[in-house]
Specification:
The protein is 35% helix and 12% strand. Helix 1 runs parallel beside helix 9, helix 2 packs across helix 3 and helix 3 crosses helix 4. Strands 3-4-5-6-7-8-9-10 form an eight-stranded parallel β-sheet. The protein is built from eleven helices and ten strands.
Length: 315
Amino acid sequence: MASTVLNFLLSTGKSIPAIGLGLGGNRSHVVEAVLQAIKVGYRHFDTATIYGTEAALGEALAEAFKSGLVRREEVFITSKLWNSEHEPEDVLSTVKKSLSLLQLEYIDLYLIHWPLKFKKGLEFQVKEDDFLPLDIKATWQALESCVQVGLVHAIGVSNFTVEKLTSLLDYAKIVPSVNQVERHPVWQQKKLKPFCDAKGILVSGWSPLGSPGSFYGTKDVITNPIVESIAKKHGKTPAQVALRWGVQTGAIVLPRSFNPKRVAENFEIFSWELSEDDMNEISRIEQRRIVLAEMFCNPTSGPYKTVQELWDGDL
């Protein structure tokens, strides 16, 4: 079934599967979920240091490789650098730690998780004095060094706006291969997506279904009347319509589910397509960013005083 997956081409020349299994949020049952997903046909797995799932993914991959279920060159692994590891001297050690946990010799894609810098050891609960001055240039140069020594094959960013990407492109020797952002029919990234397309940067969508069930998510994507109507017309689920829209617009989708039935359903988006009328209908959905990330803004000490500053007004 893996041969049916649509692939996109990275700026490095390597292919990346258009659908990946997101491994954030729930740290239990990761090994079983990954092995089941591989059997279904998934070849792209998205993790991050902050998710705490790199070790479980590594265990699943080791088992899959040993049993002959899949070969290393057939899977694409993405991980991300957390906000507390931005010091240039920490980047290399963090990448090496990820490699050790993943039991891999290289990572296919490594991203800067957020354009933020925290004190060492901090996760999400940051206080006023936990923010540090941001130096994305130094962090990016450290990641470029990781590419040069072969530890990662491609690098990119996550949650970067047009303005933040423009700044990075001024000094980047390696253009980001991917920008991973919130993207779904209710937040289509109508400003960011064309910009990335023009720069040769693939857009990858986290929360492509709105992350219902998570503390920050919503059911507004899969219960949207337009999405539901199109799903009924095609005999598909609303989730399948949302995911098909994502890949049909030229973006990677990263649905997160450990439910075997949903994992299989989410994969069934390549043997059919949405019509031009369907796409036009979806383009008319009222837009709103669901995840504002207010916890990453601070009126006195943070680099972004408000969510308007964090997202450069693209709300």
